[in-house]
Amino acid sequence: MDYQRKKKLTYFTIGLMFLFSGIEYAVILPTIWRYLQTLDAEPYFLGLGLSAFSLSGLLCGPLFGHWSDRTRKTKAIILFANIFEIAGNFMYFMGYSKWLLLSSRLVAGIGTGAGASIFGYLTRSTAPEDRATVFAAVMACRQAGLLIGPAFNLFLRLCNFHIGPFVVNKYTSPGLFMCFLWVLLELVVLFMYWDIMPQRGPHVSGTEDELEEEGEEGEAKPLVTPTSLESYGSVGPGQPEFEGHSLANGTLSPPSPPPSPPPSAQSSGFSPSKEYLREEVVVLLTAQFITLFNQTALETMVTPLTQKFFNFGELENSIMYCLCGVEVIAGFFFVRWLSQHCADRVILAVGLIICNVSCVWCLIFLANPLGGLPWQLAEFIIGVFLQVLGLPFVAVSQVSLFSKVTAEKTQGFSQGLRRSVGGLATILGPLWAGGLTNNLYIMLGVMMALLTLLTVMMVVSYERLVEPRVITDHSDS
Predict the structure, then answer these.
(1) What is the domain partition of the chain in residue ranges?
(2) Which CATH superfamily is domain 273-465 in?
(3) Most buried among 61, 189, 270, 451, using CB within 10 Å?
(4) What is the DSSP string of 148-175?
(5) Which residues are bridge partners to 246 per DSSP?
(6) pLDDT per residue as tens, the chain (477 positions)
(7) For residues 406 and 270, is the Cβ–Cβ distance under 8 A?
């Protein structure tokens, strides 16, 4: 099979994986609370179940990422991690007790750790200028899953039969359905996924191992021989440079000091403190945490708010989430196009401006709605629209930038760390908002303060939010 076909099938498989993760969230979340009630679970089990999924993914992401950095075998990692998704969803389908249900989400969450390996692979297999475009498409696939997931619930809620000793009803069927989808993905990965790297020439292709061997051989060759030095003796005004020295009239002039490369490029040894405590990395990890914290907090707040002020039921909320999903997908594809014309830091700045405007709007109009019902509804719609609008700008730009300011050789672990920071935010955000639905000024005020902090950090570090120039030292050649 030719290189381009393998590449398309591999990217299709990655998109399918993120699509299924979005579908899983959308089919299980609406029914898990009622499911727990049938198992005589206490109310706090809902929070435990949702947090368990994020917690296991948070812990396993860096481990799977480190595994992919060491082996460069992403396919094997996906196949292994997917087993946990299959097992976890089958346990959810069994549903003998509330503890088995809680364990099922903990086990299924382990499978999400493979996302770190996927992002590491995408970083290694794409050029920096194409990275934001690829990441936007992958994220849009998950949002598409969130959008179409509720449609599957339309027929899953009609299930009422037995498979041996197991009952298949509207509560257990989402687990069985997702178990089937993850088994399907296992087969797709097995036959339609390859660990390939980009072609370096019109007739060059191969696996990562093959390209690494070529790279090692290339590094062993001296870059300049005495013969090649002599050939520069008659170079004119446009003389080339060699290791920072200008070649003029056959002699080497003193070098100008090059810009300092990032710590990851200065030595082959990996130092987590030097790699992740740099200014630009801290800013991007902070952006990951704050934007996801605010997003999940607002998601938690929206349903009680619509019930309190507009008496929305299940149908109205479903329509609202569907419209938000359409807006988010459109936003990702717009950012995908915009990333080809603007720098990542510009897109990040635009996203933060939109998020700040949204938070100010919510503080003014949602914490204490003004006017009659039509005005309150309009204020609510504008606030939600602005919040959803800013999400794709911030999400895509910070992921793309993060992949560029961290070392490529440890990209799997780095992406795992980034996703773990996001997982922590998705745990804390709902907990923060859940206890303050009746104190919106406090809840939104803290969110505004966090956004302001992030904006100041980005402004101060704006010049550093670019892909660093790596100066390779070949003096030992």
Answers:
(1) 1-198, 273-465
(2) MFS general substrate transporter like domains (1.20.1250.20)
(3) 61
(4) HHHHHHHHHTT--EEETTEEESTTTHHH
(5) 241
(6) 788 898 899 999 999 999 999 888 878 877 787 888 888 888 778 777 877 888 888 888 888 888 888 888 899 999 999 999 999 999 999 888 899 999 999 999 999 888 888 988 888 888 888 888 888 888 888 878 877 877 787 788 788 888 888 888 888 999 999 999 999 999 999 999 988 876 654 444 444 444 444 443 433 334 344 433 333 333 333 333 333 444 444 444 444 444 444 444 444 456 777 777 888 999 999 999 998 888 888 877 777 788 778 887 666 777 787 788 788 888 888 988 898 888 889 999 999 999 999 999 988 888 777 778 888 888 888 988 998 888 889 988 888 898 888 887 888 888 888 888 888 888 888 778 777 767 888 888 998 999 999 999 999 999 988 877 655 444 444
(7) no
Q: Kind of pairing, strands 166-168 and 241-242?
A: unpaired
* Cβ proximity of 89 and 178 under 8 Å: yes
Q: Which two tokens stand for residue 283?
A: 């800013």
- CATH number, domain 1-198, options 3.90.440.10, 1.10.10.10, 1.20.1250.20, 3.30.1660.10: 1.20.1250.20
Q: Do the two domains 1-198 and 273-465 of this chain adopt the same fold?
A: yes
DSSP per residue over 305-355, as a string? HHHHHH---HHHHHHHHHHHHHHHHHHHHHHHHHTTTS-HHHHHHHHHHHH
Give alpha helix (H) positions in 165-278. 173-192, 208-220, 226-230, 263-266, 272-276
